[in-house]
Amino acid sequence: MGKKIKLIWSELSVYIYITIGLIIYGTGVTLFMLPYEVTSGGVTGIASLIFFATGFEVQNSYLIINLFLLLAAVKILGWKFCVKTIYGVLFLTFYMWLLQRIVLDADGNLPRLVQDQTFMAVVLGAVFEGIGLGVCFSHDGSTGGTDIIAAIVHKYKDMSLGQVIMLCDCIIISSSYFVFVDKYGETVAWQKIVFGFVTFIIAGVTLDYSMNRTRQSVQFMIFSRNYRKIADKINTTGRGVTVLDGQGWYTKTERKVVVCLVRKREASQIFQMIKSVDPYCFVSMANVQGVYGEGFDQMKANIKKAKPTLVFATNNEHKLDEVRRMVGDKFEIRSLDDINCHMELPETSETLEGNALQKAQFVKRFYGFDCFADDTGLECTALGGEPGVHTARYASDSHDDEANINKLLANLEGKDDRSAQFRTSIALIFAGKTYTFEGIVKGSIAAKRQGDHGFGYDPVFIPDGYNQTFAQLGADVKNNISHRARAVKMLCDFLHNN
Ligand code: IMP
Questions:
Q1: Which residue, 307, 314, 326, is CA-closest to 372?
Q2: Residue stretches of the chain with pLDDT short of 70
Q3: Which of 455, 462, 472, 481 for a ligand 1 pocket mutation test, highest count of atoms within 8 Å of Cβ?
Q4: Whether the CB of 374 sits within 6 Å of ligand 1
Q5: Does 375 participate in catalysis according to the annotation?
Q6: CA 239 to centroid of ligand 1, rounded, Å
Q7: Nearby residues of 380 by Cβ (< 8 Å), 6 or more positions away
Q8: Residue 150's pLDDT is what?
Q9: Residue to probe by mutation, ligand 1, list 348, 376, 409, most atoms within 8 Å of CB
Q10: From the CA of 386, how far away is ligand 1's center (Å)?
Q11: Which residues 6+ apart lie within 8 Å of 61 measured at CB?
């Protein structure tokens, strides 16, 4: 029950702060900007321009424009973003309406509180605006308007909220020229623009100041023999403490240094605690630009999520290309060259599985990367499964594709059964475990070479269901049905599920 009340109170207090911020902001606009016909940007700025040009009350156009923006925001940004904004828009509309009813003079004009000192009014209005927005923003509130435009643009474009708001405000202030030039002539119109930009700058600085004031943090460094007691006491406030090892250079004795980051408003409490334990201790307190982490602010930087890296133990560009296309951009696939591995990998096993595993283990052991390696064999029925594990060096030790195909065609000459299969075995070492995957494509060996795509035995291998060789079918078809494609597909499924 206590927890529930605490939660309700904390949510309620947020709305109380937002309301106070809106009151300060609305007061600034109504009492200092509108009577002097100065616009400071934002939707209130647009609404003010409409008011100066037509006499249509500010809060009404402010509400209408915001209703359109809110509809867009609910659709694009979702309800969560909008609840406090809707409250902000409605309350500000109501408050400005009320305040005008209270202060309007007998002729229906807004009073000029600082007589004809427009510049003074602009400064006061800007300070009110800045403080009001600061209080409102610090509690995640919003006055709608350009904040909504900024949030929507920010969702699609790499522009910060501040940049978008600034751009909108500059456009709004500059366009006040057209409203005033007809009414008062060139000189006054330019004057109004200058006043508009002065307001914009002062409000911006005040806004930053008021937001930073509540966020300002300080770092304590406390040098005391009673550091344990002090650290324990500070801990009771819920703030973390770090104790560093140091050495007093004059006495050459070990010293402990208590380091603690707190909000500035908590500083006097920390001083009281330190003084109550050790009134003579040595303390420094420094302003810090920002503190990020638990209990403080969240880091705003956008990090591109690093892709997990896997080494494919090969330098064969055809294979790398095939595998990279299949794996897509979820993983970064590096070749042996990419990790500066220029050694001949061991392939001394009598099975495809054994060779794949040997290569993967070699890379993991000497280069430390998670990796996978493959070994492929062409297995012809009429040759009792040959060339099999010797496919790459069928004709000679030199891995000569031309010679290999010649030997294969020669060995199959006169044989009726030309059926064969490519079989790929992939061994993966991933997160400390070993896995194997197998892909097979069945087909037959053509009587002669046909086609220019691919590599190895592609010009003579016709997959079942087709009447062209891999070298004729090209990469797109082959990457769908090949032995490696099937094995890699299994590998990908595994990786995506893990
Ligand atoms: P590896 O184990 O992937 O190096 O394959 C051994 C040999 O099989 C290669 O040198 C090629 O001659 C052949 N080979 C492997 N995959 C293919 C393929 O997709 N098309 C044609 N030949 C292949």
A1: 314
A2: 1, 80-81, 154-155, 157-162, 300-305
A3: 455
A4: yes
A5: yes
A6: 62
A7: 386, 387, 408, 411, 412, 418, 419, 420, 445
A8: 73
A9: 376
A10: 13
A11: 46, 47, 50, 51
Cβ-proximal residues to 265 (8 Å cutoff; 6+ apart), any chain? 214
Cα–Cα distance, 42 to 7 (Å, whole number): 33
Residue 157's pLDDT is what?
Answer: 67
Question: Three-state SS string across the chain, please?
Answer: CHHHHHHHHHHHHHHHHHHHHHHHHHHHHHHHHCCCCCCCCHHHHHHHHHHHHHCCCHHHHHHHHHHHHHHHHHHHHCHHHHHHHHHHHHHHHHHHHHHHHHHCCCCCCCCCCCCCCHHHHHHHHHHHHHHHHHHHHHCCCCCCCHHHHHHHHHHHCCCCHHHHHHHHHHHHHHHHHHHHHHHHCHHHHHHHHHHHHHHHHHHHHHHHHHHHHHHCEEEEEEECCCHHHHHHHHHCCCCCCEEEEEEECCCCEEEEEEEEEEEHHHHHHHHHHHHHHCCCCEEEEEEECCCECCCCECCCCCCCCCCCEEEECCCCHHHHHHHHHHHHHHCEEECCHHHCCCCCCCCCCCCHHHHHHHHHHHHHHHHCCCEEEEEEEEEEHHHCCEEECCHHHCCCCCCCHHHHHHHHHHHHCCCCCCEEEEEEEEEEEECCEEEEEEEEEEEEECCCCCCCCCCCCHHHEEECCCCCCHHHHHHHHHHHHCHHHHHHHHHHHHHHHC
- Residue 386 vs residues 254, 419, 438, 466: alpha-carbon distances, Å: 75, 12, 18, 23
Closest C-alpha to ligand 1, atom 9: 392
Contact 49/39 with Cβ under 8 angstroms?
yes
Spatial separation of the C-alpha atoms in residues 312 and 468, rounded to whole Å: 29
pLDDT in the model for residue 344:
85
pLDDT at 155: 67
Would you state the pLDDT for residue 301? 66
- Whether 278 is in the pocket of ligand 1, judged by its Cβ within 6 Å, is no
